[in-house]
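hey m, so remember when u said the tokens were messed up on ur end? i reran from scratch. heres the input so u can diff it against urs
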Amino acid sequence: MDAAEALALLMSPEGRVDPYPTYERLRAHGPVTQVGSDLHVVTGYAEADAMLRDPAFSVLDDVLRDRFLPGWRDSPAFASISRSMLRTNPPDHSRLRRLAAGAFTPRRIGAMRAVVTAQADALVDVIVERARAGEPVDFMSEFAYPLPVGVICALLGVPAADRPLFRRWAGDLTGVLEPEITAEELAVADRGAVELSGYFGELIAARRRAPTDDLTTALVQVHDADGDRLSGEELLANLVVLLVAGFETTTNLLGNGLVVLLEHPREADALCDHPEFAPAYVDELLRFDSPVQLTTRLTGTGTSYDGVDVPAGGWTLLLLGAANRDPRRYPEPARFDPWRPQIHPLSFGAGPHYCLGAGLARLEAQVAFPLLLRRLRGLTLAGAPRRRTRLTLRGYDTLPVAVPAADRSAPAGTSPGTP
């Protein structure tokens, strides 16, 4: 299979549901492969890591978008994403990132551990009650979504009663992040953008009337004090992206990771008995089945990688999920092994656009997995999980689980063997 055929397969519904065999077909052509006249596909870890840090590679900002996607301003989804730090280059990207970075310092994230643990325990309480009634539970709806959305909404100051709204809205909007999108999918993404923008427009007005101690209030006050530091469009767009990015990736990490652990009971038992292993486990789960599978860059100046010329003005498709399984970087990459040395997955990117909330996502997963395994001993799949037909954001729509009657289970705050 040539590289163009393999790429077409990757973009198909079959290829999106399980991209890993197709990644290997592309890898066979080299870590950097030219596909067509102006597209290069990257499957190599070292090459992807270097390109993400290389200032010769840019995200698609307004100037570039006008060139390659005429009419994008008519799309609420494209317009919203384009005003966020996700789709800006320096110096605007640096300016926007600094404004929100204070909420995601290691010290502040570390201080949230008790809050995350309490929220996770409360969600498991609900699963236990459902299990006692003999009901299977959709892990995505009952845990993987509400935990991270609750955490990011608390940071932003979103009322708890409004949090169920965001799963569909965000799911609609993030379709615009896919490498290919149909007119019908774009219409759905536009609908999500309009609903999210409308919600945050009202929240901005509410925080302006009655400030509180949250990130939304802080950003509103920056805008009101100096519109050159943060314009009204940027304020709205970055609140939307902070919300969406704050839970979409973590939701997928929790779902993908739970399935991997259930498929590897020996490793799951070790994590249950030794929660201190959680950081290494989470990094390996990120590597093994990344919740973010790809990103794109445009080459501003000509360069060369692995002996392949990448000319100015060309597109580069960085397959992060493939890079995380590069055998040159990780021997036996298709084997789940939390004991690997030096696990540094590219799931959150690298360089200037490294995910601002990566530390928070790691914390939530490091808390959640040992807690789930301890309190829900005997947790099993209760049916076939259903994958989303997305490639950029890889995760499950539904993930039915069950807890055997004999294992319904350690109450909150206890550990195995506690009398």
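this time it looks ok to me. The chain has a mean pLDDT of 92. if urs says something different then somethings off w ur setup not the seq
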